[in-house]
Design brief:
By secondary structure, this protein is of the alpha+beta class. The longest helix has 18 residues, at 172-189. It has helices at 40-48, 94-99, 101-104, 113-126, 142-154, 172-189, 200-206, 224-229, 234-239, 272-277; strands at residues 2-11, 14-24, 29-33, 55-60, 63-66, 79-82, 160-164, 192-197, 209-214, 217-222, 244-251, 254-257, 265-266, 279-282, 287-291, 297-306, 310-317, 320-327, 338-343. It binds adenosine-5'-triphosphate. This is Transporter.
């Protein structure tokens, strides 16, 4: 168990991390998600021991790894690291990359040459590079290079793997494939993983738990499904799942949008923080578009984008602009159409609210 306790980090007078608290359980797969500059890499560097905190402590089980007074250096920690840029050495073969950390890492192979070769073979097989052991980086594709970086990181059997945007240099198809490879590695090595990304789809797909960061602060920590269906802050609601933030009034579990008080929406699992601020975060696929003569709010379609599996509509509703995703089999609308809008899965209700 790794515990980040009230950790802040300043670069000169700029505070990159503000009093972060985080626990990484044994074998847990955590994604750190946030926009550029929110402090993801800073957090990773602190976890690795490349620098120390300005305030707070980082501990593993009962041992303090880093405080303002002392920082255990990376080579004395049982960690593996994978970077966006692969960071391979041009003069070393694939097998030599895997062998290298086994000679200095705290978890290095202490037995003989045979055991060392067995470990190298096992790791190369795990990442599917056993046939390419003697190749140099210049003779490998992007995906193969990233596999070498992964193999090098897991070779000493670290109990914590730190990954900084490891897939962002790869094309879309390869990224999808490598996501599965990383999930497989996680299953087989049982190491805890901290995976930094700015891609919400990647974080949702791969992690047990997502830490959403914004401007050096943690906005929410939750499993992917909870984060997506029940965001707790405006930032999380819009960054993960691109929610429309509809303004209105909450009365118990009923919501009356300001834009059209004839409509009443039921609470489909909105966090309490939105209820106090008079907002209903509605994901694009939670809305339903209907013909203008149906009940519901009225809006005008301003953009239509065909996406293959669904259609993305931009709809002007009074002063607001909403994004609405509909299935390709639903009724089609064109730019300029007047449409009715309601909330899917909600009991259809209009009229006066009975106050509770
Ligand atoms: P990206 O996704 O673009 O890599 P990030 O979320 O990883 O961003 P960090 O690299 O952790 O962000 O940087 C957080 C903030 O700290 C940024 O505003 C950055 O400019 C600043 N920063 C990072 N390193 C330093 C440094 N050595 N000196 C001064 N400021 C720094």
């Amino acid at each position: 168990m790794i515990k980040v306790n009230h950790v802040s980090k300043k670069y000169g007078s700029f505070t990159a991390l503000h009093a972060i608290d985080l626990e990484i359980g044994d074998g847990e797969f955590i994604a750190v998600l946030g926009p550029s500059g929110c402090g993801k890499t800073t957090l990773l560097k602190l976890l690795a021991g490349f620098m120390g905190p300005t305030d707070g402590t980082i501990s593993m089980d009962d041992t303090v790894l880093a405080s303002t007074k002392h920082v255990l250096p990376p080579e004395k920690r049982n960690i593996g690291m994978v970077f966006q840029s692969f960071a391979l050495w041009p003069h070393m073969t694939v097998a030599e990359h895997v062998k290298f950390p086994l000679s200095y890492h705290p978890n290095k192979v202490k037995e003989g040459r045979k055991e060392l070769q067995a470990r190298i073979d096992k790791v190369l097989k795990l990442v599917g590079l056993d046939a390419l052991a003697e190749r140099y980086p210049s003779e490998l594709s992007g995906g193969q290079k990233q596999r070498v970086a992964l193999a090098r990181a897991i070779a000493p059997l670290p109990n914590l793997l730190l990954m900084d945007e490891p897939l962002s240099a790869l094309d879309v198809e390869l990224r999808m494939e490598m996501r599965k490879e990383i999930q497989k590695l996680h299953r087989e090595t049982k190491a805890s993983i901290v995976f930094v990304t700015h891609d919400q789809g990647e974080a949702l797909a791969i992690a047990d738990k997502i830490v959403v960061m914004n401007q050096g602060r943690i906005e929410q920590i939750a499993p992917p499904e909870v984060l997506y269906t029940r965001p707790e802050t405006e930032f999380v609601a819009t960054f993960v799942g691109k929610c429309n933030l509809v303004k209105g009034q909450w009365r118990g579990d009923q919501f009356v949008p300001t834009i059209d008080s004839d409509n009443v929406w039921h609470d489909l699992g909105v966090a309490d923080s939105f209820k106090t601020s008079g907002i209903y975060p509605v994901r694009p696929e939670q809305f339903q578009l209907m013909t203008a003569d149906s009940k519901g709010m009225q809006g005008v379609v301003s953009f239509v984008q065909y996406q293959g599996y669904e259609i993305h509509y931009t709809v002007e509703v009074g002063e607001a602009t909403w994004t609405i995703h509909e299935s390709v089999v639903a009724t089609r609308f064109e730019t300029g159409d007047v449409v009715g809008i309601s909330l899917k899965n909600a009991p259809k209700q209009t009229g006066t609210i009975v106050s509770n």
